[in-house]
Design brief:
Elements (H helix, E strand, L loop, with lengths): L15 E2 L2 H7 L3 E4 L12 E4 L15 E3 L7 H11 L2 E6 L5 H9 L2 E5 L6 E2 L14 E6 L1 H8 L5 E8 L4 E5 L3
Parallel strand pairs: 2-3, 4-5
Antiparallel strand pairs: 1-7, 5-8, 6-8, 6-9, 9-10
């Protein structure tokens, strides 16, 4: 989910979804998408999908998770949940100055800073609006299999492998 705003009584939203080419390039399937649209099918190859009605932030997470969270004041909570879960890929704005982004950079197995702007798929209520996001995007991989999959996309940006030890965290740029 991208750029979501909701009215709790009607569940109207302004949503943008991840384009299918990202999943084709990752060549992974996911066990869970906790932020799936409630009124249309998304390209996310996940066995279980939570919608707004399931409250994916509070519902149980399991297996490999795909996370494209609602953007806004709750982004930090979604990213923190993914960081604690430790298995999956999160797609978020590249807000390197934000505490939640820095925490994710320290915790992720790898990350990919996308070059340029992704053209997202508009939700039903956004069919006639511009679909390119207004900020850069980063993909965080948690777990070795997710990091290997993310590396398949390195031609789309800068891939960073995170080398973490108990005493320090060092980011090492991988050669292109």
């Amino acid at each position: 989910m991208f750029g979501e705003e909701r009215s709790t009584s009607t569940h109207k939203s302004v949503e943008w979804y991840t384009p299918g080419w990202i999943f084709d390039a990752l060549a992974l399937t996911f066990d869970l998408d906790p932020c799936s649209p409630h009124d249309m099918e998304s390209a996310v190859p996940a066995a279980k999908k939570y919608t707004v009605f399931d409250d994916g932030l509070k519902s149980p997470w399991f297996g490999r998770v795909w996370l494209n969270p609602p953007y806004g004041p709750n982004t930090a909570m979604w990213v923190e949940r993914m960081t604690k879960h430790g298995n999956g890929i999160a797609l978020v704005f590249s807000r390197t100055d934000a505490h939640w982004c820095q925490a994710a950079m320290r915790s992720a197995t790898a990350m990919l800073f996308i070059s340029g702007r992704i053209q997202f798929v508009p939700g039903r209520e956004n069919q006639h609006k511009k679909s390119r996001c207004g900020a850069g995007t980063v993909l965080f991989a948690f777990g070795d299999d997710c990091a290997r999959a993310l590396r398949r996309l390195e031609s789309f940006g800068v891939f960073v492998q995170n080398r973490i030890s108990a005493r320090q965290s060092v980011l090492e740029l991988c050669p292109v």
